[in-house]
Amino acid sequence: MTVTSVANNGSAYFPNEPKGPSVKTSTIPGPKGKAAIEEISQVHDIGAVKFPVDYEKSVGNYLVDADGNVLLDVYSQIATIPVGYNNPTLLEAAKSDEAAIAMMNRPALGNYPPKNWATMAQEGAIDFAPKGQKYVYYQMSGSDANEVAYKLAMLYRFNNLPRVNGDFTEEEKTTCMNNSSPGSPEVAVLSFRHGFHGRLFGSLSTTRSKPVHKIGMPAFHWPQAHFPALKYPLEKYTTENQAEEDRCIEEVEHILNTHHCPIAACIVEPIQSEGGDNHASNEFFHKLQATLKKHNVLFIVDEVQTGMGSTGAMWAHEHWNLPTPPDMVTFSKKFQAAGVYYHDKNLRPHAYQHFNTWMGDPLRAIQAKYIAKEIREKDLLQNVKTVGDFVYTSLEKLAEKHPGKINNIRGKGKGTFIAWDCESSAARDAFVGRMKMNGINIGGCGVAAIRLRPMLVFQQHHAEILLSKIDELI
């Protein structure tokens, strides 16, 4: 493949990176990796292990496995590594007294926060919050964040119901202990087909991506609407795609009008990631927000996978230019910390209505602060935009060169958050395997999709390696 060069965004962020991938063993994992997996199996589940990693030797965009194989990582630990392996700024921060004290004196934040917790939360979350969001509610993971967002929505509704004395009634106190109404009212959260929001009980009830995530587990009987199934290329199917999005909004309206119990909130991903990297237009999300407002349903945007820069904006929903902020925005992954942003102080529940021992982790707030520092000082959002445009354009050319192999390319103008469909799930899985054995760690999603999740420090020379391998192995 011939690649037309564009200027690099400054010098390489990791001058000590390998020049390219290098695979030494006939399988990945190789002998040492297999031995490590067997050792792990004696103490921990290995059902989903791909291969063990040597994190001391991994650097920048490259990870090194237990056998010394060097892979260009465009999957980045399921989209969680923001600014490269062994980033010098983060390593230096980790050696500071600030980080050491936070790590070795981890507080029960709800009861005993550090005296400077306001500053830590400001610098570690609020300073780069989505537009309009004023407050943060830290949690432990993306699933936790979504679970808590649902609770906040339900408690907001419950706590603001008309009450005789402005307090909980004896009946409410008694019945909630028996899991019955009125103390435990029946309330729902609306989600979308093919969405993924986690594997805890509430979040799992809104996850609709794969049966394996849900099978065998009880679930709340909460409603789901269709997420738009757009046709590509978008410019060719403008009329059809608008009709499809309107159909989905009409379905949301119908559910809100007819569901058997009140709906407290609706959750949506800006791009449905685990479900196949499914997109919708900015106009769809404007209509969705307006519909929810009409019915007094809180709007939760799940930015667990899309947040912190991968789409070329700090937060993917910023591309929408909504007239008012979403009610809540959940985050995790590249953020390293996890939690919920919100802007209405009334969403804070009464003390102990939501509470756990940790309520977040000051060390992760410190880490997030330095990640944001790297993004700003190295202008990584612009890097993501430039490299993403280059990758998207190059994939369009490869699709023409390999008819039927690279289908429905999506993510134009969304940085490096790019995906395409293979001919089948078997073809996708085989391609992922070939790429791994040729030094590219890449991932799939949905039925037959390949998704790119490179780090924010992924540059054009990395993209050229990736694209050459795709051309060779597709």
UniProtKB/TrEMBL annotation:
SUPFAM superfamilies: PLP-dependent transferases. Its cofactor is pyridoxal 5'-phosphate. It catalyses: 4-aminobutanoate + 2-oxoglutarate = succinate semialdehyde + L-glutamate. Keywords: Aminotransferase, Pyridoxal phosphate, Transferase. Residues 1-11 have a biased composition (Polar residues). Residues 1-30 are annotated as: Disordered. Its EC number is 2.6.1.19. It comes from the Eukaryota. Gene3D superfamilies: Aspartate Aminotransferase, domain 1 (3.90.1150.10), Type I PLP-dependent aspartate aminotransferase-like (Major domain) (3.40.640.10). It is an enzyme of class 2 (transferase). Coiled coil: none annotated. One of its GO terms (molecular function) is pyridoxal phosphate binding. GO terms for cellular component: cytosol; mitochondrion. The keyword Transferase applies. Pfam families: Aminotran_3. GO terms for biological process: gamma-aminobutyric acid catabolic process. NCBIfam families: GABAtrns_euk. This is 4-aminobutyrate aminotransferase. It comes from Schizosaccharomyces octosporus (strain yFS286) (Fission yeast).
